[in-house]
Structure to design on (303 residues):
């Protein structure tokens, strides 16, 4: 069994490495808001999530983890940033036994109250920049230690009377090494583009994003602790790594901490029955402000 696990792991790493080497151009970053599709749990753990996400948010982050769920789950996240920026998402995961698991979700990032000005610099009006995506995913376990998943995303971007639409696809996988280690991989924005309804029909191509993550439960025999890390590539270039940890106290209170390229992150949570409310804080990439994330997770059909 262990030898088979090692072979699966080796093949998966080769696939993701080969793909990242092929995709070697970067350019602009349209659709980068999709990288914000993270719940407060992973944000509090430095953004580590690819091998960690175990709820309905997997349809955004790693559809390979969607196949590992056993319960109907609902997630909702609210993110508040400076300069009138807002992030929202909602997702639902629905297991169907031998048929596999289905998921769907909606996510939106907006910048509100942007000031419009005329050629002389006088204020004329305010408007918003809104980007959103509708996601449909499917995941399934293959044996008891390997899962695969795919998702399709319909994208829409509206700005000052113009709009762009497009479709893209994600692929994900999860591998279980023993009872405590999970390795996840995701390739996002496969064959993707946005086409604007301008006279020129402007088109934008979303850069492919590739991520590998590992989570370690009860490390070194210490119960109720989880460690996680991710490494990410966007447009064929290294985009950073994420590190984080979590401690659960008496199945009621949760404390989290992490690190990524912008600094330290912190998070906490409280859970009771099938409900869990998470909170996360992390620094902005500019200025002295911070971002706040809140996530509600509802396990509708607890085991």
């Amino acid at each position: 069994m262990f030898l088979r696990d090692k072979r699966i792991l080796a093949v998966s790493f080769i696939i993701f490495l080969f793909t990242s080497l092929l995709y070697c151009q970067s350019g602009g970053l349209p659709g980068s808001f999709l990288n914000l599709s993270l719940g407060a749990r992973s944000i509090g753990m430095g953004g580590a999530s690819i091998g960690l996400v175990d709820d309905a948010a997997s349809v955004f982050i790693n559809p390979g983890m969607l196949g590992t769920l056993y319960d109907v789950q609902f997630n909702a996240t609210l993110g508040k940033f400076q300069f009138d920026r807002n992030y929202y998402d909602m997702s639902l995961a629905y297991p169907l036994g031998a048929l596999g698991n289905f998921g769907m979700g909606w996510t939106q990032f907006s910048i509100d109250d942007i000031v419009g000005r005329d050629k002389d610099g006088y204020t004329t009006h305010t408007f918003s920049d809104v980007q959103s995506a509708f996601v449909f995913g499917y995941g399934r376990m293959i044996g008891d230690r390997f899962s695969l998943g795919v998702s399709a995303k319909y994208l829409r971007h509206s700005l000052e009377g113009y709009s762009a639409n497009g479709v893209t696809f994600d692929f994900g996988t999860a591998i279980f090494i023993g009872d405590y280690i999970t390795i996840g991989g995701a390739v996002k924005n496969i064959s993707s583009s946005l086409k604007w309804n301008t006279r020129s029909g402007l088109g934008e191509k979303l850069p492919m994003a590739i991520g590998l993550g590992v989570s370690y439960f009860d490390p070194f025999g210490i119960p109720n602790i989880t460690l996680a890390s991710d490494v990410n590539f966007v447009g064929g270039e290294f985009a950073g790594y994420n590190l984080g940890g979590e401690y659960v106290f008496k199945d009621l209170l949760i404390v989290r901490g992490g690190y990524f390229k912008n600094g330290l992150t912190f998070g906490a949570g409280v859970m009771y029955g099938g409900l869990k409310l998470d909170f996360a804080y992390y620094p902005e990439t500019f200025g002295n402000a911070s971002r706040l994330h809140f996530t509600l997770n509802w396990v509708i059909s607890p085991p």
